[in-house]
Design a protein that fits this description.
Elements: E1 2-3, H1 5-13, E2 22-25, H2 28-33, E3 43-47, E4 60-63, H3 66-76, E5 80-81, E6 91-92, E7 96-100, E8 104-115, E9 120-126, H4 133-139, E10 144-148, H5 157-166, H6 171-190, E11 193-204, E12 209-211, E13 214-218, H7 227-230, H8 240-247, E14 251-254, E15 259-263, H9 266-278, E16 285-288, H10 295-307, E17 313-320, H11 326-340, E18 346-352, H12 355-364, E19 369-371, H13 375-390
Parallel strand pairs: 15-17, 17-18, 18-19
Antiparallel strand pairs: 1-13, 2-7, 3-4, 3-7, 5-6, 8-9, 8-11, 9-10, 11-12, 11-13, 14-16
Length: about 400
């Protein structure tokens, strides 16, 4: 789950991480009032959307008065921001964050993330930061420092000191790095984050370290432990189908292709996607049916696939076992087809518990599915039918 910059900063502030003073505003009038409560005479008005590249896209404005803050907010609120990370559709701006501008002499990059190849939390840092950091690091990957953290020992002061030296921090900034990184690490672990990114992390003229921008992602699977964080979810930033999927306990992510995918098991779903792409197709979604899914939940998921106007073919790939049987999925699909028909071809591949019964359920209830037992052949059929539907 992504949270907004202002929410992440408020959370990090509780862990002693320095962030500029600021306040969120949902209206022009509210934005105009914020500078009156802050220090200094230079401020920043930032669009709050779950995407990077806001500065280049015009989503970050520097202002020097309440009047200018109001003008910037009026221009941003209600508009659609298109960045390198939003796609061409962009994201609508529903709130802005107004904060004090800092006296910056250097910009660094710092992140904590889960390094799945090592099975550990890892610090990723560079002595260069800002919006161009990705291009810089792509050209010169050696500028990026990776420091895995031993889960038994936790983050040690000596590790922070060595990283500060690698980043060429002054004595004052190196001293500031200890509480900052300790705070970020504690926030990461306490809140089950999968990413906390400070970019840029500013070094001020006085040697302080200030997180100018923060991106934070919380592991969805841990939200049952964090009701306070669940409340931070901004459904306006989510696709309507993804919101519906959450209500019915479906793991769903909308993609840009034309083959609707329904699979039980995340690993099998990823393998299915890889096969589709290998056959020159493109998935329209990631949908993982959970093991405890009911017939009704399957029906809801299948309706979602059919409701996507980009979908020209649906590919259902099942491996029955444990709790979820193939016939349960077939019954959910049949319920949908009986109620509204099947507007696109359905490729159905089932193996495992009650696979034969699932095919019989669909046949007996008049579902005109194309059956395949071989996974590679099923993927080929899905790509072929999707291409014919798009022609």
């Amino acid at each position: 789950m992504n949270i907004h910059e202002y929410q992440a900063k408020a959370l990090l502030r509780r862990y002693g991480v320095r962030v500029p003073n600021g306040q969120v505003a949902f209206s022009v009038n509210a934005a105009a009032e914020v500078p009156k409560k802050l220090f200094g005479n230079e401020f920043v008005v930032k669009a709050q959307v779950h995407a990077g590249g806001r500065g280049k896209a015009g989503g970050v404005r520097f202002v020097e008065s309440s009047e200018q803050a109001a003008t910037a907010a009026e221009d941003l609120l209600g508009s659609t921001l298109v960045t390198s990370q939003t796609g061409v559709a962009g994201q609508r701006i529903h709130r802005v964050y107004v904060e004090e501008r800092c006296d910056v002499v250097r910009e660094l990059y710092l992140a904590l993330l889960v390094d799945r190849s090592k099975g550990r939390v890892c610090i990723v840092a560079s002595k260069e930061g800002g919006e161009e950091v990705e291009a810089v690091l792509e050209q010169d990957p050696d500028k990026l420092r990776r420091v895995p953290i031993d889960p038994d020992d936790g983050l040690q002061v000596d590790t922070i000191r060595q990283l500060a030296a690698d980043l060429y921090l002054s004595d004052a900034a190196a001293d500031a790095a200890v509480p900052l990184l300790t705070g970020v690490y504690d926030a990461f672990m306490d809140n089950d984050a999968s990413l906390i990114e400070l970019n840029p992390l500013a070094v001020t003229r006085s040697g302080e370290l200030v997180a100018l921008d923060v991106k934070m992602v919380i592991d969805d699977n841990a939200l049952m432990r964090h009701a306070d964080l669940e409340a931070l979810r901004d459904e306006a930033e989510m696709d309507a189908a993804e919101i519906e999927a959450r209500r019915y306990a479906l793991n769903y992510l909308k993609l840009s292709g034309n083959i609707g995918c329904m699979v039980n098991g995340a690993g099998l779903a990823l393998a299915t996607h890889d096969l589709i792409v290998e056959k020159s197709g493109e998935p329209a979604d990631f949908m993982d049916i959970r093991p405890e899914a009911t017939r009704g939940q399957v029906a809801t998921g299948f309706r979602m696939l059919l409701a996507n106007p980009n979908v020209k073919c649906v590919f259902v790939n099942l491996c029955g076992g444990g709790i979820l049987r193939c016939d349960t999925v077939a019954e959910g699909i049949a319920d949908v087809v009986r109620g509204g028909g099947l507007p696109v071809p359905l490729i159905f591949r089932a193996a495992g518990t009650n696979a034969d019964l699932s095919r019989k359920v669909l046949t007996d209830q008049g579902v005109d599915a194309v059956f395949a037992t071989n996974l590679g052949r099923a993927a080929e059929l899905a790509v072929q039918h999707a291409a014919e539907g798009a022609a």
